[in-house]
Design goal:
about 35% helix, alpha/beta, six-stranded mixed beta sheet, globular
């Protein structure tokens, strides 16, 4: 299996000399779903934001399908094949569903037919395409954000806490959709506090502690290890 994303000894943080990510290394194979887990403050979101060009990198290297993208500006990375869905403010609430996707398509020069394919993948969005995104349910807004990130046909899609603020039912719907997205050939990396649902769809999981990977293991093995769960992940719980 070739590597879709390779992170090598990455140090990154918001302030010079105060790294939050401290030498993290992780490789994600093409077609994998990899969950990044760990306690609060472990650097999970900072890690993928650094990869996405949103947090300064002080040292280390990031490769996307073998090409060095270390420190590339965030607005250029979708053109390189990297999609990113932030946890908050990930849709234009006053624009319709269609306008959100059409704007991304115009910026990324997506080929004709790309939006039709995404509406096929997200039929709820096709039915609601003329509604402002701000009037959708939380799960539907998350699907708009995911669809928009997919407009440029990324090789790797990264998501920061996709279950945040969603009911258990909506979490299930969104995560089922991520499994469908993977079937279309997209490699997925997700940061998630909802350990149970993340491990249910992931092939592997990386547990970050103090800015470095402490454990990288197959998801089912990690889910079955109560000592790891107790020490590093806390209680597995459903979000309300």
């Amino acid at each position: 299996m070739s590597d879709a994303l390779a992170i090598e000894m990455l140090e990154a943080g918001y302030e010079p000399g105060l790294p939050i990510v401290r030498g993290a290394s992780l490789t994600i194979g093409t077609g994998e779903i990899v969950a990044i887990l760990g306690p609060n403050g472990a650097g999970k979101s900072t890690l993928i934001k650094a990869v996405a060009g949103l947090v300064p990198i002080s040292s280390g290297r990031v490769e996307l399908t073998g090409r060095d993208i270390t420190g590339r500006p965030a607005h250029l990375l979708p053109h390189e094949g990297l999609g990113f869905v932030p946890q908050t403010e990930n849709v234009f609430a006053k624009l319709t569903v269609a306008e959100n996707l059409e704007l991304a398509a115009a910026i990324l020069k997506a080929p004709r037919g790309r939006l039709s394919a995404l509406y096929d993948l997200f039929p709820d969005l096709a039915r609601q395409r003329n509604l402002p995104a701000g009037r959708l349910s939380g799960g539907q807004r998350q699907m708009v954000a995911i669809a928009r990130a997919l407009v440029g046909a990324p090789k790797v899609l990264m998501l920061d806490e996709p279950s945040a603020g969603l009911s258990p039912k909506l979490v299930g719907i969104v995560f089922d959709k991520l499994v469908e997205v993977r079937k279309s050939g997209v490699t997925i990396v997700l940061v998630e506090q909802n350990v149970k649902v993340a491990l249910a769809i992931a092939d592997r999981a990386a547990v970050l502690v103090e800015g470095r990977e402490r454990i990288v293991e197959k998801a089912d093995a990690l889910a079955d290890d109560p000592q790891v769960a107790a020490i590093y992940l806390g209680r597995q719980r459903e979000r309300a």
